[in-house]
Amino acid sequence: MNASSHIVVGNSSDDPFAIDVAYAMGQQEDVSDLISLKQFANSEFCPRYISDEQDFSDIGGKLRGRSVIIVSTSNLLLSRQDLAMRTFTMARAAKENGAGEVILVEPDLFYSAQDRGPRADLGRCAFARTEKDLKKFDGQPFTARLYAEMLRLAGVDRVFTVHNHSHSVQTTFTEVFAGKFHNLIPYDIYVDYLRNSDIISCGADGEGLALCAPDKGAGDFVKEVCRRLGLPKVKFLLLDKERSGERKVTITVHPESECSLRDIAGHDVVLFDDMVRTGTTVVQACQALKEAKQRKTVFALTHFYASEEGRLKMASTAIDEILTLNTIPTVLNRDIQGRLRKKMVVLKIERWLARNLCTTLGLTARTMDNSLYAIDMSSKNLRWKQKIWLSEQLKLLNQR
User: What's the pTM?
Assistant: First the structure.
């Protein structure tokens, strides 16, 4: 990374995610040495990009010729509203002090849930909107567009996010940022972990493994994971869901599925989705898979912002293991994981994210090992215990 051209900061003090991204990109300075995040007595937030207090040359231009990368992730201390406002003011401060480009890195893009409004012209969906769909948003704002426009107004020029599922959000941000919107899909992370860990068991050509999409919206993503795995005998199962209420979902096999539930008997099955909130759909889908008498069910997802209700539901024996990323870093907190820590593994994506940023921006990442991620797993996890046992057995054999 060219330290003179780009600086990486976080929008909360000592944000470990931002610090790790900065380090992986090759930034030598600590984030806390680059920006001060202060708050006035009246509670208003005021960031300051740090400069030499004795240097009165080029006041208001210390960031000229540089790009500022703001890394924004949710945490337990600040609401998303607070963090969004911090991003706006940090972006404006960067621009008003000469920054040539302001880049927002928000792995879990805020305000994506409200991705359309109550009229057909409010959001470009990949499906024909019915009157029922329009009514769902009656009286509400098209918040995704508002957020994009406020970021642009504040001074953000480019946005990076991870695995955003909404066609409308992607279209909106691409329009607002004139193409400088990057939705990074973590295919290579999932493929690498499935191939090089013991989370699943299958034959050399993928015999005994099935990858599952919970609905057609996730179908293309799961098919691409299948393709990149390069195992010709992996099965692809496509489910369908029909909601009859907020907590009522009926799970069936989609007519376009390449195999049936009967075909996955005795298989390890990995069910992929981009996010989980209440856990209703995923648990019912995994229960349907269990009834097919498969061997093991792994739920793999990118954004883990499960509510307490969701965590209770996912403790179900229908899910054997949960594989997730740390796009929402609070998932690393063992108290947040609760009982799920016994079957959860988190892949920390800061290195992968830094490499993607450097590739897109034409920078050189820090020279490290070739790993895409770091693995975080509780000692309560059964696979962790098995690894410790095997390690102890090897030590005993070596001592003989």
Answer: 0.93
**What is the domain-level CATH number for residue 307?**
3.40.50.2020
- Residue 225: inside a domain, yes or no? yes
Q: Are strands 344-348 and 374-377 parallel, antiparallel or unpaired?
A: antiparallel
Q: Where are the beta strands (DSSP E) in the chain?
A: 6-10, 35-39, 45-49, 67-71, 101-105, 158-162, 181-184, 209-213, 235-245, 248-253, 268-276, 296-304, 321-325, 344-348, 374-377
Q: Which domain holds residue 58?
A: 6-184
In a domain, 276, yes or no: yes
Show pLDDT as tens, one digit a residue, over the chain (400 residues). 454 699 999 998 789 999 999 999 999 999 999 999 999 999 999 999 998 888 888 899 999 999 999 999 999 899 999 999 999 999 999 999 999 999 999 999 999 999 999 999 999 998 889 999 999 999 999 999 999 999 999 999 999 999 999 999 999 999 999 999 999 999 999 999 999 999 999 999 999 999 999 999 899 999 999 999 999 999 999 999 876 555 667 899 999 999 999 999 999 999 999 998 888 889 999 999 999 999 999 999 999 987 889 999 999 999 999 999 999 999 999 999 999 999 999 999 999 999 999 999 999 887 667 899 999 999 988 888 777 655 655 666 666 6
Alpha carbon distance 58, 219 (integer Å): 54
Q: How many domains does the chain have?
A: 2
Shared-domain flag, residues 33 and 152: yes
